[in-house]
Amino acid sequence: MIRTKKDLKHYLNLDRQVYGITKRFPPFCGGEHWKFLIALRYEEYHANQKGIYHKILKKVWYMIHRHYGIKMGWDIPINVFGPGLKINHFGLIVVNDNVRVGAFCDIHQGVNIGQQGDLADDVPTIGDNVWIGPGAKLFGRIHIADECAIGANAVVNKDFLERGITIAGIPAKKISDKGNPWIRHLKNN
């Protein structure tokens, strides 16, 4: 969760790292992934501050975040993903507001991470360095350990607490001990 300007800078630096972006600002034309992440992170920052100034800027960043979200088919709320979020493709991605995802999540199109029942906390908690393949569906009060890989079109509705495994299938089950081969680590900038 982004609470200070230092947190904001940290999140943006790590988001930029996963895309290999070296420039601070996105290009005028193109760069929608980066523009979306900038808007997401600034909206998060202003939403977690107090005062009328932050309330107004939260609304401004919300409109920009929403614009790029609609343009690319992403419904990704604030205060859900840790730093280093990588969204690989345009296309539908839907995430519940109450989900919590760690650092360096690598997510593909067609993913749905949501609520199973009526309770607000009936949503997944996902660890660091998790790779989520195209079309995966994760729902219910489940926990996914760090460094896991979730296969394409997997339906995950139970806990996977073993670190560094690959899960796939309908319903999902462990298929390998290899896990996410694209582990990312913090770099000091």
Name a few traits of the molecule.
189 residues; alpha/beta; UDP N-Acetylglucosamine Acyltransferase, domain 1; 6-stranded mixed beta sheet; 5-stranded parallel beta sheet; 19% strand
What does this 3D model show about the protein?
This protein has 189 residues and is an alpha/beta fold. The protein has 2 domains: 1-74, no CATH class; 88-182, UDP N-Acetylglucosamine Acyltransferase, domain 1, CATH 2.160.10. 28% of the residues lie in helices and 19% in strands. The chain contains 3 helices and 14 strands. It has helices spanning 5-19, 32-47, 52-72; strands at residues 74-75, 86-87, 93-95, 100-101, 106-107, 111-114, 125-126, 131-132, 137-139, 143-144, 149-150, 155-156, 166-168, 173-176. The strands form 3 sheets. Strands 2-5-8-11-13-14 form a 6-stranded mixed beta sheet. It has a 5-stranded parallel beta sheet with strand order 1-3-6-9-12. α1 (5-19) packs antiparallel against α2 (32-47) and α2 packs antiparallel against α3. The radius of gyration is 16 Å and the shape is globular. It comes from Bacteroides difficilis.
